[in-house]
Amino acid sequence: MITALYASLLALLIVWLSLNVIKARRKHKIRYGDGDNKQLICARTAHSNTVQYTPLALLLLLMLEINHASIWLIHILGASLLIGRIIYAHALLKERHSGRVTGMKITLYTLMALAILNLIYLPYDKLLNL
User: Fold this and answer.
1) Looking at residue 130, what is its pLDDT?
2) How far is residue 5 from each of residues 27, 42, 82, 86, measured CA to CA in Å?
3) Rounded to 5 degrees, what are φ and ψ at 68?
4) Which tens digits make up the pLDDT trace of 105-121?
5) pTM: predicted TM-score of the whole model, two decimal places
6) By the 8 A CB rule, do 81 and 48 touch?
7) Could you tell me the end-to-end alpha-carbon distance of the chain, in angstroms, rounded to an integer?
8) Rounded Cα gap, residues 65 and 69, in angstroms
9) Counting Cβ atoms within 10 Å, is residue 94 exposed (0-12), middle (13-18) or buried (19+)?
10) Which of 8, 14, 91, 129 falls 20 to 30 Å from 40 in CA-CA distance?
11) What angle do CA 123, 129, 130 make, to 5 degrees?
């Protein structure tokens, strides 16, 4: 399954982002919340944003794969999602606004493409046989 590849890579990204949060917490001795610390705020935001977008995108990618979309299309969308999330997280951690915008655009365009393509590849004949 192609989706398993991207789910695994995105899981590793989430683990890396989690470790960044832990590192910032230890460095600044902040147990809960963000302590109004900019580094911790950025680390938490990079992590939570990725956690928020990844499940829906992977579900849509899996549905597209199940509905027999072409392999190259699934790889392009999976790679696009992964690249968008990496660009966003890296830019946020380095406090670069333009990279954040680019990463979000890639992520949102990928989500829109996944939603639209799922509607196209949906097996309508099976939906009508209720």
Assistant:
1) 60
2) 33, 27, 11, 16
3) 65, 40
4) 999 999 999 999 999 99
5) 0.89
6) no
7) 28
8) 6
9) exposed
10) 8
11) 115
Instruction: Say which amino acid occupies 50.
Output: T
Cβ-contact 107, 81 below 8 angstroms = yes
Nearest to 81 by CA among 99, 63, 55: 55
3-state secondary structure the chain: CHHHHHHHHHHHHHHHHHHHHHHHHHHHCCCCCCCCCHHHHHHHHHHHHHHHHHHHHHHHHHHHHHCCCCHHHHHHHHHHHHHHHHHHHHHHHCCCHHHHHHHHHHHHHHHHHHHHHHHHHCCHHHHCCC
